[in-house]
Design goal:
The protein has about 160 residues and is an alpha+beta fold. The chain folds into two domains: about 1-60 and about 120-150, Alpha-Beta Plaits (2-Layer Sandwich), CATH 3.30.70; about 60-105, Alpha-Beta Plaits. Helices cover about 25% and strands about 20% of the residues. The protein has helices at about 15-25, 30-35, 65-70, 100, 130-135, 145-150, and strands spanning about 5, 45-50, 55-60, 75-80, 85-90, 110, 115-120, 140-145. A two-stranded antiparallel sheet has the order 1-8. Strands 2-3 form a two-stranded antiparallel ribbon. It has a two-stranded antiparallel sheet with strand order 4-5. A hairpin with a 4-residue loop joins strand 4 (about 75-80) and strand 5 (about 85-90). The longest helix is centred in the N-terminal third of the chain and has 10 residues, at about 15-25. The mean pLDDT is about 90. This is 4Fe-4S ferredoxin. InterPro entries: 4Fe4S_Fe-S-bd, 4Fe4S_Fe_S_CS, ET_IronSulfur_Cluster-Binding.
C-alpha cells in the first residue's frame, strides 16, 4: 500500500507553512536563509488557494487515472504501480507543459526559469512529506486510501 496526501479544508488557515517548507525542501541548500539568496528561487509544489471561507492546498494527487502521464510526449512522467505515484525523469523532459495543461486539479505548475514542471513528489528524498510536519493545525493528512475511507465513514450508533 502507498500513502497519499489529503487535506482537511475545514482546518486549513492558509498560513502557507506548507508552501514555505516545500520550497525550502526543493532548494539546493535545504535551508531557509540560503534558499532566499539562491539565484534560481525554489518553487513550492503545493499551492494554497482560497475561495470564499475555505482554503484549499493543491498538490499532485498521483491519480489512478493519470492524464499527465498519458499527455507527456517525452515519457518524462511515468506511473509507478508499486508506489502508486507519478514519477518524473527530468532528463527526459522537454518542457512542453502538456502535463500542466491536462492536470484536472491544476496541481502541476511550470517553472519557466528551469523549464520543468513543478509537482509534488511526496518528498521522495525524505521519510515523509515535509508539509505534513509544517502544518500547525493538522490540516494535512498522510494516509493510505483505505485508512482515509475508514476515517470518513460515519460511525454507527449502538
Amino acid at each position: 500500500m502507498a500513502k497519499k496526501l489529503y487535506y482537511d479544508v475545514s482546518k486549513c488557515l492558509a498560513c502557507k507553512s506548507c508552501e514555505l517548507v516545500c520550497a525550502v525542501g526543493k532548494s539546493s541548500s535545504k535551508e531557509l536563509q540560503a534558499a532566499l539568496s539562491e539565484e534560481t528561487k525554489p518553487l513550492s509544489c503545493v499551492k494554497v488557494k482560497s475561495l470564499e471561507s475555505k482554503n484549499f492546498p493543491i498538490a499532485c494527487r498521483h491519480c489512478k487515472e493519470h492524464p499527465c502521464v498519458s499527455a507527456c510526449i517525452a515519457g518524462a512522467l511515468s506511473y509507478d504501480k508499486t508506489k502508486k505515484l507519478v514519477d518524473y525523469d527530468r532528463n527526459k523532459c522537454v518542457g512542453c507543459w502538456m502535463c500542466v495543461m491536462v492536470c484536472p486539479y491544476g496541481a502541476i505548475r511550470d517553472n519557466k526559469a528551469l523549464k520543468i514542471p513543478v509537482r509534488c513528489d511526496l518528498c521522495q528524498d525524505a521519510d515523509e512529506p515535509r508539509c505534513l510536519k509544517a502544518c500547525p493545525v493538522g490540516a494535512i493528512i498522510y494516509l493510505e486510501e483505505e485508512e482515509l475511507d475508514k476515517l470518513l465513514k460515519p460511525k454507527k450508533s449502538v
